């Protein structure tokens, strides 16, 4: 009796060894037969009760071996069939086929406009000063001659960082003036481009994030005439040799006197109510002579030095340059919009 059962088990083993599955489907049949939940090896273990006592151990080992042979064969066949499938796929690869075209990105229209502004000022000796977007109260307001409780703080509705009255998202690029003046002695001639934030309702003309370029020139004998000539030079480089500018008296806490500058863009734009309110004049910046309080707050002797400063918005100039009607397009990141701008800058 024992001998017969031993033969049966050995028969299963030879059957496994002889099996030659050629496809994944045949391999799956193999797996179900020898390793699946209803495989034919399992019941062989039960036969042990019919084996003479002295041969039980030998029988158990034999059935185990059969099981192991089935497992090893399955793994080996699986690996072989899989790599054959990969090779077949690879041989379909046509190395002479033309490649997939790579989509080239392009610069953002705000970046193009900003770079253009920076280049214009670099040509007359201004250097770029880059600084943080998370500012402290002192640099953003106090050093800019806007102490706590000063009503001028209301001109810039501010995002404070959670649980902080000290840290905020800068509301303008003017704090870069203080950053530079506190670490560098005159002559100072910098341009500071960057992003700023205000708690404003988003509309076609305003957004809670936008970009500015700040300018600062501090030296002995810097005058309002220098400011005006520098800005006229800028307007002509930016908008063409016929551009006209006008300065309107205004108020900023950190400049005295202060002005706002408009650029006249020609009769055609008088019809453009959105951008010029029907006047043809586009307001682009605030400027003035640096207030002595600001110079002193930053450790610069206001008896010896004077300076001018200006801060301009970039979005409005970009709207004009590209004839775009809505500021929100700049921030929506729609590639159909963004890929229309090519630039050498
Ligand atoms: N920081 C001002 C603003 O965001 C703009 C400005 C006005 C900057 C006058 C200046 C300046 O440097 O002199 O409204």
Task: Please describe the topology of this protein.
Layout: H1 2-18, H2 24-34, H3 42-46, H4 56-91, H5 109-122, E1 127-128, E2 134-136, H6 137-142, E3 167-169, H7 175-181, E4 188-197, E5 209-219, H8 224-239, E6 244-252, E7 255-264, H9 273-276, E8 281-290, H10 292-297, E9 306-313, H11 315-322, H12 335-338
Parallel strand pairs: 1-4
Antiparallel strand pairs: 2-3, 4-5, 5-9, 6-7, 7-8, 8-9
3,4-dihydroxyphenylalanine binds at residues 172, 174, 214, 252, 255, 286-288, 309-311.
How would you describe this structure to a colleague?
With 345 residues, the protein is of the alpha+beta class. The protein has two domains: 2-86; 109-338, Bira Bifunctional Protein, Domain 2 (BirA Bifunctional Protein, domain 2). The chain is 39% helix and 19% strand. It has helices at 2-18, 24-34, 42-46, 56-91, 109-122, 137-142, 175-181, 224-239, 273-276, 292-297, 315-322, 335-338, and strands at residues 127-128, 134-136, 167-169, 188-197, 209-219, 244-252, 255-264, 281-290, 306-313. A hairpin with a 2-residue loop joins strand 6 (244-252) and strand 7 (255-264). Helix 1 packs parallel to helix 4 (56-91) and helix 2 packs antiparallel against helix 4 (56-91). The model has no long low-confidence stretch (mean pLDDT 91). The structure holds 3,4-dihydroxyphenylalanine (DAH). 3,4-dihydroxyphenylalanine is lined by residues 172, 174, 214, 252, 255, 286-288, 309-311.
